[in-house]
Amino acid sequence: MNKGFTLVELIISLGVLVLSVVVLVGLSVSYLSILNTIRTRYLALNIAQEGIELAIALRNKQIETGAQPWAGVSTAGTYCLSFNTNTKRIIVESSSQPCPTGVSDYRRLIYYSDFENPHNSNLENATATRVISEVYFGKDKIQLDVVLTKWHPHQ
Amino acid sequence: MASTSMKGFTLLESIIVLALFVLAITIASQVYVNMMSSAIIAQSFQLGLDNFRFGAEKIWNEIKNGSDFRAGLEGIDFKDRHCRDITVYKSGYNLNFRINNRIMPLFDNELVKVNSFRIYTDQPQGGSADDPYYKIAYKLIVIEYQIEIKTKKMNIPLTIRQTIAPLNSVLIDKPCR
């Protein structure tokens, strides 16, 4: 009597083997994916914070030099802020699109608006300006915000 | 009398089954080792990054609330919120944090390797001793770290830039006189 495995038995055993391998591979990939997520989100948060610090420094630089507009920009809208380490100056450029940040695949856009009256586009009249720093990375984005006040050490 | 048939596997069948078993075990164990390796790297990376963040945030907080900055390319001196003298500088593959002449390393050498530590600042307009503090204080301090997070399997390189606008930089008088 010749007796071997049936097709069903073979398929089930192969299925169990493939399933266990797939689960182990999936776990391995998910660990690396977690690692990558930790890294990318930390970098994104750092770049968003950089945008906020640049906006604060720009306002403070206006105080130092007595320059107007006090917030560093006169019109509500979207801007790109960066720091040139050679000229030691903060660069402000009006832009509707997020700009490169020096870290590839991360782009940033800074929103300026009147904190008390969001419909007012003239920030020279504003007593407080809301600044939002938005960073785009991959399909994700992260945002931080701060409110800058029209403040001067002489006041 | 009933006849009993003595039937087992042939040598060929046994060899094939054994070979398949060994193959399956090899694949499974390799995948398992890879999974464990990934888990170890992910865990070590998390530990290393946490250690770096802890040290970097300490610098960020001290500079944010500090004053009287004197920045070099690879180190910075300043006074903290309690007017204590602070110096942060690169030493070997780590950063040293000196507070009132007491020196402590910022990062765990087993977890973080600092390859480069650079400091950039803006250029204040003022310069004379009579100028108010807001005329001479840095408004922006940028720190660039090139580090490697050490995991048990490999070192993962990272470039991190910290940008700080010190809170005291718009005061009329120096906070520590």
Report on this model:
The complex is a heterodimer of chains A (155) and B (177). The N and C termini of chain A lie far apart (105 Å). By secondary structure, chain A is of the alpha+beta class. The mean pLDDT of chain A is 90. Helix content of chain A is 38%, strand content 29%. Chain A has one helix at residues 7-65, and strands spanning 77-84, 89-94, 99-100, 106-114, 128-137, 140-149. With 177 residues, chain B is an alpha+beta fold. Chain B contains 2 helices and 8 strands. Chain B has helices at residues 11-64, 133-136, and strands spanning 67-71, 75-79, 85-91, 94-99, 102-105, 112-121, 141-150, 155-164. The longest helix of chain B is centred in the first third of the chain and has 54 residues, at 11-64. The termini of chain B are far apart. The chains are: A alpha+beta (155), B alpha+beta (177). The A-B interface holds A 17, 20-21, 24-25, 27-29, 31-32, 34-35, 38-39, 42-43, 46-47, 49-50, 53-54, 56-57, 60-61, 63-65, 83, 85, 88-90, 102-103, 151-154 and B 24, 27-28, 31-32, 34-35, 37-39, 41-42, 45-46, 49, 53, 120-126, 132, 134-135, 137, 139-140, 142, 156, 158-165, 169-172.
Distance separating the two termini of chain A: 105 Å
Tally the beta strands of chain B.
8
The largest pleated sheet of chain A is described as:
6 strands, antiparallel
Subunit arrangement of the protein: heterodimer
Query: How far is the N terminus from the C terminus of chain B?
Result: 115 Å
Q: Unreliable segments of chain B (pLDDT under 50, ≥5 consecutive)?
A: none
Main pleated-sheet profile of chain B: 5 strands, antiparallel
Question: Which structural category fits the helices and strands of chain B?
Answer: alpha+beta
Radius of gyration of chain A: 26 Å
Strand content of chain A: 25-35%
Q: Roughly how many Å is the radius of gyration of chain B?
A: 30 Å
Mean pLDDT of chain B: 90
Strand content of chain B: 25-35%
Helix/strand structural class of chain A: alpha+beta
